[in-house]
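Input:
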Amino acid sequence: MARLCLRKQPHLKKFIVTSAPPVVYYIPDFITEEEESYLLQQVYKSPKTKWTQLSGRRLQNWGGLPHPKGMIAEKIPEWLQTYCGKISRLGAFSGKTANHILLNEYKPGEGIMPHEDGPLYHPTVTTISLGSHTLLDFYKPLSGSSQEGQLPQTEENRYLFSLLVKQRSLLILQEDMYRSLLHGIQGCEEDVLTEKVVNLTEAGAKTGEIVSRGTRVSLTIRHVPKIIKNKLVLGRK
Ligand SMILES: O=C(O)CCC(=O)C(=O)O
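Output:
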């Protein structure tokens, strides 16, 4: 049987953001307003103990804790499993089913430092945005050696471009976008849309628009390939 793969799905081709490096799929209105309200209700119905407060955002982890020795899989509730299934059936994880969700909540003014998602995941990240838009910013990684005449490797100098992710959209990043670039979210309360936002057309927005951020909840849905069944294995050398 042919491997399920996004590239081989002709109906998804129209969602590729052609002005970004390979490969970004941006699917506006992936979920309906009703689904968005239902998901937000479930998020805020979760037990208080499910939340971890970090500086600048809080999060819920579902599916287990990814670990180099393998993740001890935990049951994913139905309200999230539905979307793991829907996104996996698009071929986002090469025929595998998503088994991990990191849910982040950002109040206006909050964000996340530039980072890469690393080797514990299948190299695809898929994100459903709830409640508000944000701008996801992309950066060149720090290069090991600094050469004469090279600009200092500040965050500002390494910044490349941004993607506008509106509420209810699905964003899929693979290949160079996953492996070669860092991503982050600036902690600000409003965004000025400039030509550095490379998917304005796809997201139905215009250069010069100023958009205020509300509270955004993102569902980052991924596949962790290495699973262990036995809790004791983690303790062994
Ligand atoms: O909220 C987002 O869209 C980004 C989340 C993210 O980069 C992460 O949790 O690693």
